[in-house]
Specification:
Shape: globular
CATH superfamily: Class I glutamine amidotransferase (GATase) domain
CATH class: Alpha Beta
Number of helices: 5
Largest sheet: 7 strands, mixed
Strand content: 15-25%
Distance between the termini: 36 Å
Order of helices and strands: HEEEHEEHEHEEEEEEEH
Structural class: alpha/beta
Low-confidence stretches: 12-20
């Protein structure tokens, strides 16, 4: 009986230790807060949500994080040093414009101060932009500029329609981050200018930077030119004969983020 008790105690201790050590990835629901009416006319949230299984959701991306041992969380309010304290990774995706949200929550100086302070302490910040016609760049860039990165208004990888998917393709070779994905699809994106400590991670065929990173204090920042890993483009909609591997890229990206995250 004593042996069984000790075995159970050790098991519980190991389980609680695993839960305590699990890293948390928090998805912003404050700067991106789009709504639409459902069939009953009720206003509901949508676009880049963890639990959203429609094409516009991040459910598959979230599952990749969970498969790598992350706990998923979201932040409905403005970021502060206090409410970011329990997060290892913080994702900000496609901040709203008035066209998407009549009363958008813009990224202001107080938010920048809190986010930069959290990164400096060891957090990993991931910024997903979009082409300039579909994201609020002026305030977003005030945050990105702190880390030596700037989202431009120059559209890259423009895809006219489904018959021109190849125009959104990026071939990957010998990349330190994308070690398994050889070809990805990232359409209608902006480009990223870098300076100082910021460095390009991935460029398209035209030589424009579409993913960049910077070390900041004890933490790291990743800037990505588009929210390209939403469900529409990792669940099989991409023509298989074209060889796109966004599913593999999602795993590569999350593993890289995990390696940067504070233990």
């Amino acid at each position: 009986m004593k042996l069984l008790f000790r075995f159970c105690s050790v098991g519980l201790l190991m389980a609680s230790s695993f839960v305590a050590s699990a890293q948390t990835v928090t998805l912003d629901y404050f700067f991106n807060r789009e709504t639409r009416k459902d069939k009953q006319g009720k206003e509901i949230r949508f676009h880049y949500l963890w639990n959203e299984r429609a094409n516009s959701g991040f459910s598959i991306f979230g599952n990749v994080f969970k498969s790598e041992g992350f706990k998923l969380d979201s932040l409905e309010t403005a970021p502060t040093l206090s409410n970011l304290k329990g997060s290892n990774v913080y994702l900000i995706v496609d901040p709203d414009r008035p066209k998407e949200n009549p009363k958008p929550n813009y990224i202001e100086q107080a938010h920048i101060y809190a986010i930069a302070g959290w990164v400096k302490q060891g957090g990993v910040l991931v910024l997903f932009a979009n082409d300039s016609a579909n994201v609020e760049l002026p305030h977003f860039n005030k945050l990105a500029n702190v880390f030596g990165m700037h989202f431009t208004d120059q559209m890259q990888n423009h895809v006219i329609d489904d018959a021109h998917f190849e125009d959104g393709g990026i071939i990957i070779k010998n990349n330190p981050v994308f070690k398994t994905a050889a070809k990805i699809f990232m359409k209608d994106v902006c480009s990223i200018d870098t300076k100082g400590a910021a460095k390009p991670v991935l460029k398209n065929a035209a030589g424009a930077t579409v993913i960049a990173t910077a070390k900041y204090g004890k933490g790291n920042v990743i800037a990505i030119a588009d929210p390209w890993l939403y469900d529409e483009y990792v669940n099989g909609r991409l023509p298989k004969e074209m060889g796109f591997e966004n599913d593999k890229a999602a795993v590569d990206l999350v593993k890289w983020i995990k390696s940067l995250a504070k233990k």
